[in-house]
Batch of 3 targets.
Target 1
Amino acid sequence: MGILSFFSRRAREERALPPPKPRSSKIRAGVAFGAGGTRGYAHIGVIRAFEENGIDFQYVSGCSAGSIAAAMYAYGMSAAEIEQCFLGLRYNEIKTSKFWFVPSSSKNVENIIRRHIGDVTFENLPKPLAVIGVDLKSGEEIILNYGDVARACSASCAVPGVFSPVEIGELRLIDGGMSNPVPSDILRVMGAQAVVSIDIHSGRGGGTESTKMIDVLKASFEIGMKATALKGIINSDIIIQPDCHMYKQTKLEHMEEMIAEGYRAAMEKMEEIKVLLGMEKPKAEPKYRDLGQIIKFSAEAEETPENQSEPSDSEGEALPALPQGAGGEDGSQAAGRQRFFKKQGKR
């Protein structure tokens, strides 16, 4: 309990202090917050570790529960502020249906998010953000980076059977974790040169020895989810994997423990992250333990995709693929947005 008390006390102290000033890095970096239900509390500990080490990311993506952490991080909230948002949160604020086969309204999740970030749109966020949903009509993965943030995040969290689908335009969206639970590949499209991902459900796909129908269905679902996470692993330079397997994805208890585990897992990778971002020189030859690093280095010689502009060397400059909000758009930016929203019919 000692370490948990330490984090609780530290969170209270941090709320009274301004966040540490990020160290400058010429490398355009992105962070992907992965899916995992209430295990998403671990994201708070990871953000805290970033803050303590002066690490800042220019591009942000998120999926399902990770979309909420991503939105709050892109909005400019500190780890202590995000933690405060969920202290005292009650289960009946999220899931209102008393029957497991009757989904609750996704409006519940939307209202919780809106309570803390208001009616902010993607265009007005300090950092470029993209979250993932799946269109129930077409089965296609949808990248949301335009319009109302709270509604987009509620769509990304709309687990089938638990929450109702969310309609945005002609789309009927469900949980993005069905297609891309660790959305690191989106950060590459946005212009990130270096990608750090947080996978809070790394134990997916373990199978089961039980022959009971509910256990077989659950294991089958988990095995399928393992395959969907592969592209996220491949496109990550470094993957932070908090060990939260002992905590249920549907329970609100053990928040402090999961925050502590997220912090521990991030600190374990901190030296590698600083080297990746050019903040420190490597102390030894890189081990390339992550598959994403191997794939990245082997693919560097590939030709730039057609019609995709080369990123500028200027730090913080908007990229054509995803406009950075209130700064306006030139022709190339508008074209980039049209490509990104091709499946949504955005013009």
Note: The radius of gyration is 19 Å.
Target 2
Amino acid sequence: MGQHFSKPNPRPRTAKALCRAVVGLIASAGAFFAFGMTPLASAPSANADPLTDLIDVLIEPAIAASSGISPAEFLDPSILDTALSELATPAGWETAVTDFSSLGTLGTADAGSAATAANPSDTWLHGLEQDWINSPLGQQVDSPLNAWFAQADPSAVSADDPSAGACGLICNGANGLPGTGENGQGGGLLLGDGGAGGSAAPGSGEAGGNGGDSGLLGIAGPGGAGGSSATGDGGAGGAGGNSGDAFGGYGGDGGAGGMSTAPGGVGGAGGHGGNGGLLSSHGGAGGTGGRSILGNGGAGGAGGTGGWLSGILGISGGNGGAGGFSDAGTGGVGGAGGNGALIFGPAGNGGAGGFGEISGGAGGAGGNEMLAGNGGDGGPGGASDAGTGGVGGAGGNAGTLIGAGGSGGDGGSGATAGGNGGAGGTGGFIDNGGGAGGAGGSSSMGTGGAGGPGGNAGPIGPGGPGGAGGSSATGDGGAGGQGGNVGLIVGTGGTGGEGGNGAVAGGNGGPGGNGAPFIGVGGNGGNAGLGATPGTPGLGGAGGLLGYPGNNGLA
């Protein structure tokens, strides 16, 4: 660069340093994205400090390059113009890139450390990304890059439909306009958030726009709300965008379904949540189902799937959306929880069933886990003022290797009958065992709902307890759920659920689950419900070869 600047002038030296700082930022970002694309063949060492590794890899090169530059000089247009003109020449790039040649020596272990370090700081990274995109310097650097990208790959950025692809390389996708149902535009392929889907026009009954996908670093856009309708069904909510973030992205939430006021009209379904990215990512939540005044409520949207290693720090599959409210019919079904990550990610919980005048909506099932992690809880069933309560959603199954099954959702209360509780999810090979069964819903004029059965455990672990039966103010109490059984090696069977109390007859206690055949103790039976005619106690579960049976419940 010395051939372009005379030594007596102090500003070119500052421009030279600023030039190096810009290249440092680009090189650091390049290393960041390279890590996301590099197979994690070897795990980082046990004593590695992830945050330190992240700073070493991504931040220090840019800091070193910008040494000697005051913050005010970054804002000096003459210095910035000189630095950018330097970058327009091959010689200027050669000198600057030489200063950052050490980035090429980073190994696979460093890539793994940087990826892991991004997990607890996804919010911080997203803040850095947005600060850069919205800064004057970022806009001057990014605009030419995005223009070049549009010319180099026109198919990735559609001029006829801007929402069909990415907005460029480094940019935030445009939001769909409200009232149009437009899809949100995808974020930049490298950096940028996806745009939000536009809501549908009120009264149109049309679907909301889908959220835009995010790039390698960013958050996907939420779906737009569906339009209401006075002549038919409400519009469906738009789906949330998917995350392309390799480190800490989030799938967009699904949009809410539109309301229907037409006779027999159904509320719009909630949009599905977007899927998470590769590593520490979170699936988007499903949208809420639309309300219906003279028909059935809309179904809640399913939650999005978590990332590949998404649950290391408690991030998970997205929760299902709640079912829509119904003033004259059946409440909407709750959306299913999103499945968890391949490794360590808890699954999302199912959405609650909507209230329904005739019958409550069923709760959504909890999401399942794949290898290691807990299943999601089932959503509770919706209540009903004049009919039957909704059934609770089933708990999701745990990972095959380790994890606890999700709890079943409670049944909704109902005038003529309470809803049954959901079944608990199955446990993994080892851990906290099967999930608890959901409690049965109460009833004001009929029979209480039955408790859900507890989830079975794997070869090692306890069975889940059965849910309690629902009570009844004027009729019979509901039966308690059966305790979960245990697999082959060692574990205690789940306790049977207690029978619900009833004005006429008490509910029967649930039987206890069987212990492990080898070393196992049977679960105790559930106690009988009270009533003019008491219920029957539940029997204790069988014990194993080196164990004993459970006790019977009490009358």
Note: Residues 423 and 452 are 5 Å apart (CA to CA).
Target 3
Amino acid sequence: MCNGSCQNGCVESIDRYYNSIVQCLISASNSCIPVKKFRSKKHWWNDELDDLKNNLIAATTFWRSVGCPRSGAVNDNRLQWKYRYKLAIKQAERNANQAFNEELFEYFSAKDDDAFWQAWRKRYCSSSLKTTSNLNGKQGDVNVCNEFTEEFRTVFQTNTVNSDCIFEEEFLKLTELVSDDTSCPKIDIELCQRCIHKMKLNKSPGFDNVSTEHLLYGGGDLYVHLCLLFNTMVQHCYVPEKFGHGLIVPLLKDKQGNQSRSDMYRGVTLSPTIAKLFEYILMEFYGDQLSSDVRQFGFKKHSGCCHALFTFKETTKYFIKKGSKVYCAFIDASKAFDKVLHNGLFVKLLKRNVSVRFVYILRNWYSKLSASVIWNGVIGPVFPIHCGVRQGGILSPLLFSVYIDDLLNDLHNSGYGVYIGSLFAGVIAYADDICILSCSCYGLQKLLDICSAYGQKWDIRFNPVKSQLMTFGGSNPDNTTVYLDKKVVQWCTKVKYLGLYLIGGADFKIDLTAAKRKYYGCFNTIMSVVGNQVNEIMALHLVKSYCLPQLMYGCEIWPLNSVNIHEIDIIWNNGFRRIFNCCWRESVKPLQFYCRTLPISYLIGERQLLFYRRLLCSDNIVLRTLAGLVRFEMLGIAAKYDIKSIYFSTATVKNAVWSSFVNVVKF
């Protein structure tokens, strides 16, 4: 490795070294791993059926050559092969179903929700999914691919022409002021292996066809070469040219939508797997330098949608109890991730005193970003990407959080918005989903003006049409107009925020109609396929793993005074009756007891107590402060299960809730 004095030949060697590693991996996998064309045959087809089919064809051909007799030895031979062939098909299908029954639990248990449905549709629904051959009036796969290319080419261009050039000059000035980062982190085999094991399996590879499995099973020699490659890249602040290229796969946003319109599709970018591994390694060294505001709940450990929803719920309830209205603005930023100014991002990183070496690596990487669209096997022309964080990148969510972090600080320092004591709670962010809260329309307008000004400076386009306003603690104002970027934002009575439908009015309420619909859809899909083919315990596991979360999403923050828990209980009990084929009038509590499964009402209590326990241990000051507001509410829930203190362990809660349920079961 070079010791710092980079020459052109040095960076060219990095490209050659990377290409050699990729070629070796592909060559080794091609020579060792058999490849089978997807859905070329039925999944239960085997060589025995091939032989029987060939024998039947031969017998039928001979039968036709002798005049198609309706009796005699020739016809009997043909019929025998025909019956044997049909019987073998039925038996093979039956055996496949039985094998599916035995492997279903293990195969699907290891998958998350998205991967489960992807695997499910791949096996059962792929034949019904057809791609369009007509897009924006253009016919044929090549023309469709070109239309998508033009569509996505415009996505990765800045909202304002040359808006990034201003920050390029500022970046160059800042690099002259900051001192060079002489420290160079060393990447060893142990770190490389640890990062590989963090990567997800069964994911589509990039254009080089290298998948996570290649790296996982590549062996010790591969780890040595990867460490040499990555150390050289870090030392020279250089990444291979192919690290920047991605394949964009257009996916239909809505299956019921118009497939012939390009705006009905969203693009998913497939990046090189080795590039993802390098991002994991960079995260190990520089991830702690990419922190963001405590009111940003997205893409952080021990933080999620429920924490943002809890913050919103308790903040609005706090002011409603004091007799005040809370005016909320739910802001939509158009393609926010795809419109990040590259030089603007680097300027923000340098101003935060992030490692200069890390910034140089990112700058070199982002200068090489390009993409091409793949559609039905046709790959379109390559086009450059001028803005946006890398889609699917491991660092991308953190970089985006840094990009909008100053907006949260500006809102905090404005003096407007709601405060709980001295704690500012006037903005709640989950990635690019931003909610602003104020006790006056005047204050709300001032906060939106700050957002507009920030968007103009940093080329973020907030969409007033998709943004919404809503009031809690009373009705929406009749004669008040609020503007975002000089355009009117509409007042609404129901808003979808982070997956939950919130209903405005005198109190905090939610609408679970969509959650029930999703639950029924998932439940009926599973039962229509596995209904009488799998045993009841496996079917119950599938429903608990992949249907119940649809129904109980966000239950940690459900306002129990406005949610019909009895109705939710009935929905879950009817599911039990359907799985076990019980009489509709029989109680399912004994059945739930023997299946070690709680009714919905008990599950909600358990989850709310465990969620509250996590809030008490959180390092987020906002969450800990708001947790103190619901202390007596949680004590009331805990008392239902004979729990005396709020400082309880997970095992204590689970055992107490289960014991409470057992006491009401009548055998």
Note: The longest strand covers residues 245-252.
